[in-house]
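#structure-requests
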Amino acid sequence: MRLKDKSAIITGAASGIGKDIALVFAREGAKIAIADLNKEAADATANEIRSGGGNAIGVAMDVTDEKAVNDGVAATAAAFGGVDILVSNAGIQIVHPIEDFPFAEWKKMLAIHLDGAFLTTKACVKHFYPQKSGVLLYMGSVHSHEASPLKAAYVTAKHGLLGLSRVMAKEGAAHNVRANVICPGFVKTPLVEKQIPEQAKALGISEERVVKEIMLAETVDKEFTTVEDVADVALFLASFKTNALTGQSICVSHGWHMS
């Protein structure tokens, strides 16, 4: 097993991409903290892992609250004897044209994506550095490299994760800590399914056209990326053995963005 005896905190892991990463990591021997704003859902996912023979706990965590983050990381370290991997995955989507984008929603988006990544990183490296090992994985997006209409806050936040990861690749190197960004294309999760009618309304086109002409237009095969695709890349990066892969962004997008 590629992650045997490692412990991982995965934020936003009660559902969607985060949950699939948790299931794959548990299958590969990792002990998993399902960190989520919804504690009941986090416990349900942890129970699912335990019922399959894995080791997992649910942790209540608002990633924008420093105390909640620190308490969740401390609870994980206490339960598993340490922390080895952070997957900063928690995120939401809000779309508006810039002239109608409420400032409160802009701040909410950046707080969850960027403040959350900063706070969880800050808490986890305090465990990584003394043990001279650790993995930081940030859930970026093709929108870490590309722009789309209506997504000023999301694109800004996902670009910001590239900067944070690259800084952590440099700061963490002395402590054998790697940092990388996973950049999926459109993955058909509830978050993306919610966007389809929203964008259709905002752009005045059909939902079918949103999928065909916006979401999948630049892919090589007109296919959505799957949660399994993303989880497999997360496993590859989490289990990579050296600093040969650090400070990188890996696009998982059916060729939408090639880098």
